[in-house]
Design brief:
- The protein has 116 residues and is mainly beta.
- Helices cover 0% and strands 53% of the residues.
- Strands 2, 4, 5, 6, 9, 10 and 11 form a seven-stranded mixed β-sheet that branches.
- Strand 4 and strand 5 form a beta hairpin.
Length: 116
């Protein structure tokens, strides 16, 4: 059974840091590109950061470049999103996504609220 389970969300103040984690099971994790998406209230889902299967290539949305870092551990089957200098506009549900040429999987999401 395929599972992507996100964790680490919560309520933080502007300027704080937070680390999200996504634990994968039920598929060959090391063969999948992993991506974090987010969806803010009333808005569409947007790509935040992505990392290729071997972990050497990453890409980020312009709005998070220099503040967020995506990383993965193919042995532990996890992908993390380290978020720093958080802003109120980073408030959203964050989703973990796994993509191969043959399959796409989604997690259930974890809520991040940035508010003073």
């Amino acid at each position: 059974q395929v599972q992507l389970v996100e964790s680490g969300g919560g309520l933080v103040q502007p300027g704080a840091s937070l680390r999200l984690s996504c634990a994968a099971s039920g598929f060959t994790f090391s063969s999948y590109s992993m991506t974090w998406y987010r969806q803010a209230p009333g808005k569409g889902r947007e790509l935040v950061a992505t990392i290729e299967p071997a972990g050497g290539i990453t890409d980020y949305a312009d709005s998070v470049k220099g503040r967020f870092t995506i990383s993965r551990d193919n042995y532990k089957k996890t992908v993390d999103l380290h978020m720093t200098s958080l802003k109120p506009e980073d408030t959203a549900v964050y989703y973990c996504n796994a993509v191969s040429p043959y399959n796409i999987y989604w997690g259930q999401g974890t809520q991040v609220i940035v508010s003073s």
